[in-house]
Amino acid sequence: MCSSANEVIDALKNFDIKGLAKDVLPIKLHMGEPGNKNFVSPSFVREVVRYVRGMGIRPVLWDTTVAYRSPRAAEEGYLDVARMHGFADICDVYIEDEGYSVEVQGYRFEVAKILQPLDFFMTISHVKGHIQAGFGGAIKNLGMGGVTKESKKKIHEWAKPVYYGIKCVLCGECEKACPFGAIRVDRAWSYSPRKCFGCGLCVEACPEGALKYLRENFLKGLAMSATAVMKGRRSVFVNVLINISAHCDCDPDGGPIICKDLGYLVSDDPVAIDSASLDLIYKNCGRVFEKVNGINPDPILDYAEKLGLGTKEYDLIRVR
Ligand code: SF4
Ligand code: SF4
User: What domains can you pick out in the chain, each with its CATH number?
Assistant: First the structure.
């Protein structure tokens, strides 16, 4: 646990980054949607990059193009955003739009091609809320940010509801649960796929089992996708618990700050670092993610652990 960039650098010294990265180190980073103010600060990233360069390694900040309407949906547009947000003058920035196929539990994910020849990279994740996952940390940064648009869309599609009318009692709980107005329950049940974001809240809310996921729960989809990204490789993770907002850095607004700044965590295990991040937030601010997003994010840790991505167990060591 660290309270400054200098302490993060000290923590990073515990990992053999030079030996693992050899001559180039891609650093996975969400560089923020235009309008959002909560993404990881370029001044912090600059310190990490300086440390990496000091070892004779070439750092490259990278992310993937997004699947929704945004300048970040195209490589050039995302590079403009990286310049606007102060990342492009830190080091080279690479935006990946292509992938290669990796299978996890019978599902295929298109992992960012930049990773294909690599067995090591670094991941910097802003810890904040997320409207569909409850919260986003390292696992979400990998699972959504480490794959192509097609896979991103697929994970969202999987969590859309399938309706079994024979079980439905028209109680309206699903309509109440849907944050996007995609379900209407009157004398009949109706659903607008166009408005549905695939959050799965309606499926979880239905007391009769009349709604099922098209394929998988969104959190499980993310955990599987993150496992695909990490298949055959390792990473050192930095979780940034600063500007802990209600919503994700993909949101131009990002919502209010829901917990005080808690510093930084460093680990080589994406499940342990997210587990520790959640525990710290719960301890200091309560179950804020459920409060603002209506979703308990904890199951993502269980899914990820079962898939072998890491362990929820951790020792929190204070770096001074
Ligand atoms: S999956 Fe989410 S957005 Fe889609 S209908 Fe259900 S609650 Fe609404
Ligand atoms: S929550 Fe379930 S039972 Fe109630 S209206 Fe929706 S689908 Fe029907």
Answer: 5-151+218-306 (3.40.50.11440), 160-213 (3.30.70.20)
